[in-house]
Amino acid sequence: MSGKKNLSIILFVILMTGILAACGGGNSSGNGNTPNSATSENPPAKTGGKVEFWLDKLGDAEKAARLSEVWQKDSGIEVVFTNYPDVAAYQTSIQQTIDDPGAPGLFTWWSGPQLETLAKNGKLADLSAEWDNYIADGVAADVKDAFTVDGKVYAAPYSLRYASVLYNVKVFEAAGVAVPTTFEEFLEACEKLKASGVTPIGLKNDSWASFIWFQQLIAAYDPQLYLDLCDGTKPYTDEAVKEVMGIWREMFDKGYFGEPIVYSDLHKEFATGVVAMILEDSPTVTGLQDDYGMEPETHIDAFVLPSMNDGKGTIFFEASPIVVTEASASKEQALAALRSFYKPETQSVMVNDLGIANVSAVSVENQTIQNILEMTGDSEHYQLLLRFYENTPEDVRNTALDELSRFMYSGAAIDEVLNNIQAKADEVFG
């Protein structure tokens, strides 16, 4: 998401995971069903053929092959993955091909304004009639709000990533720190961890990620304040926002945050106990287990940052959409494949290989991820909110990322930062 370079040559890496098509169907025309022909009780007939699936989120060829193989068994469609390692190149390639019959039938995109732009320009297939099938397979009905434009649904989830505070269990035990249940206990835990010689909270040095702690602290203060900022109802210069920013600055001043470092180094410091906590999404748990042997609950577990005002904890989620290209010659194959994407076997590969859980009815081997999923389903104590990156207009977001980065990494003054963000918000919201 941070790629902003001007590219004169589009570089991309194609991960070919072609699997022999089941049922003898090898051409892209197939005999696809209409979007309304399938139900959960009567799954669609095997369509045959193949469909290209472009994305920028799966650079592991072995995992892509496993996902493609299982997905084909569930759908009868050969899904050929093309992964782009560079976001800017990926976006350019999609925009250049999206109107052609040779465009990929499936591709991942971003929710919020970027999805809205493609939908309003007629580039995406309307999936409203398909959603009963997705819900029947365990996709949460509330998620479709993130993919709805003018009353129609134009996407389904490729990945739902839930953010929580991941903590090093051994470090907590050594410092005598319990999982906090109030915000005051959270600050006390930070102080105790610091006193034990451990950096309480690790930060990565990606400027695009500067919103992560901002949104979490604003929602801990008042979830409605967060929503009001996103849609322009309240200004960034509101006194409540200044109060939260003051709390955040004090946490920096007390040494609760470590120096921002690259993502891979942050994971290493977390795994080796240099850093006690990181605010990251659920797939990070799988990466830490694979790369550093951090066993669920034994070495790594998760909690939600407590409310500052005895309210519900807020779990932010990133809903990465998978969409069907309206102009693609393989549109029908794409629709048929997507109907089977949420079947248990395919989603088991998603959760156990990638740490991504899109449905409730799936076998999760990683107990820490299971704990996160259970928290997302506990509406008595937690609420889900779409993260800031997709939940506010792009121009406001980009200005906010720059200004929050200056606040975090350069110590920029609170009033200056908030005034600059609000000046852009005034332009966008009028």
Notes on the structure:
42% of the residues lie in helices and 15% in strands. By secondary structure, the protein is of the alpha/beta class. The protein folds into 2 domains: 22-160 and 319-369, D-Maltodextrin-Binding Protein, domain 2; 162-317 and 382-429, Periplasmic binding protein-like II (D-Maltodextrin-Binding Protein, domain 2), CATH 3.40.190. Strands 1, 2, 3, 6, 7, 8, 9, 10 and 11 form a 9-stranded mixed sheet that branches. It starts with 49 loop residues before the first strand and ends with a helix. Mean pLDDT is 88; it is low at 1-46.
Question: Nutshell version of this structure?
Answer:
With 430 residues, the chain is α/β, with parallel strands linked by helices. It contains 17 helices and eleven strands.
